[in-house]
Amino acid sequence: MAVPKKRTSMSKKHIRRNYWKRKGYKAAVKAFSLGKSVSTGHSKSFFVQQTTTKTNK
To answer: What PANTHER family does the entry give?
Structure first.
């Protein structure tokens, strides 16, 4: 027969939520940093062909 489990304490709940949020924040910072390095051309892990626009007069 199913028995209800004990309630999780608030401190444990906050720890788990903060850890989950921190993981997302770190992933966002890493993605932003990679995007910034790719856009400036300083990336060492991605090879992006830079396109230059020339104006003809």
So the answer is: 50S RIBOSOMAL PROTEIN L32, CHLOROPLASTIC, LARGE RIBOSOMAL SUBUNIT PROTEIN BL32C
